[in-house]
Amino acid sequence: MSTTEDRGASGMAEQQAAGLLGGDVREGYAEIGDVRLHYVEAGEGPLIVLLHGFPEFWYGWRLQIKPLAAAGFRVVAPDLRGYNLSSRPKGVKAYGADQLTADIHGLIQERGAKSALLVGHDWGGTVAWDLAMSHPEVVDRLAILNAAHPRKLSQGLHHPGQLRKSWYFFFFDLPDLPESVVHANRWHFFRHFLHDARPAYTPEEIDRYIEAWSQPGAATGMINYYRFSVRESPKKAAAALRPISAPTLVIWGQRDHYLGPELAEPDHDDVPNLDRVERLPDASHWVHHDEAERVNQLLTDFFAPARPAKD
């Protein structure tokens, strides 16, 4: 069960979303089985769930939450398990695809919806792909930001160019050493992942990230995503792939230093209802930060069919 430590409820740990984004933003905790997920919520209307990637947390969507709410949606941005104020289960097995998708499936139901519009970036994109495959009934529309379809990523990791970009997958699989390295020099290792964003993250924004990374056990939780993925049997992972029925939009920052542009477009058989791949040539991996207005418009337009028709 969740504990006070899970919540990280000390000092500035409660991020005070309303103070950061405005008084019409709510935050809370959802009990999903034996995991407690912290989330930020705004707006009313069809439910959009925003899934952040590594090494972010709900705050990675700070430029999307209020604009999407203003466009007529109820927006929920959770901290994924292991991150920030959500539960941080011990052990690598707690970070497998089944557990991660069960969290979001449960969150949608806990928030009172039968299904949702789903957006995922980076690791959140991987969780979104997996949820759309394993529980298609809860994903009405799917938007992916700079996260390769699992088949594409697996294929990419067989090529030297992508292997060089993904070297940290294998570094993170080492025992204990990664935790020591990432803590050093005021979290320099994690901060470096964000360095190519344009505009650069401000010192105040970086402070929010450091606060999240500093929650007890958070670094290990974040790293355990990679440990599980590297250790999982490729045959088992391939066997779990299913065609995705939801209409799907891929938004891709072409200046991504971590994923090659050839990984953006999924195979037609895997995503037969692909709307399109929207490539933003000047955006980095942090496409939702670099070109927030464009991303917000793309999401609003793509999700517009879910809004009730006006009289």
Task: Summarize the structure in words.
This protein has 311 residues and is α/β, with parallel strands linked by helices. It has 14 helices and eight strands. The longest helix has 17 residues. The N terminus is likely disordered.
User: Which regions contain 5 or more consecutive residues with pLDDT less than 50?
Assistant: 1-13
What is the radius of gyration computed over CA atoms, rounded to a whole number of angstroms? 18 Å
Order of helices and strands: HHEEEHEHEHEHHHHHHHEEHH
Number of strands: 8
Morphology: globular
Count of helix runs: 14
In whole angstroms, how far apart are the ends? 47 Å
Q: How are the strands of the largest sheet arranged? A: 1-2-4-3-5-6-7-8
**Helical content, roughly?**
25-40%
Strand fraction equals 15-25%
Q: What is the averaged pLDDT score?
A: 92
- Assign the structural class, choosing from mainly alpha, mainly beta, alpha/beta, alpha+beta, or little secondary structure: alpha/beta
For the sheet with most strands, the description reads: 8 strands, mixed
List the helices and strands and how they pair.
Blueprint: H1 4-7, H2 17-21, E1 25-32, E2 35-42, E3 47-51, H3 65-70, E4 74-78, H4 97-110, E5 116-121, H5 123-134, E6 139-145, H6 150-156, H7 160-165, H8 167-171, H9 177-193, H10 203-213, H11 218-231, H12 234-239, E7 248-253, E8 274-280, H13 287-290, H14 292-303
Helix pairs in contact: 4-5
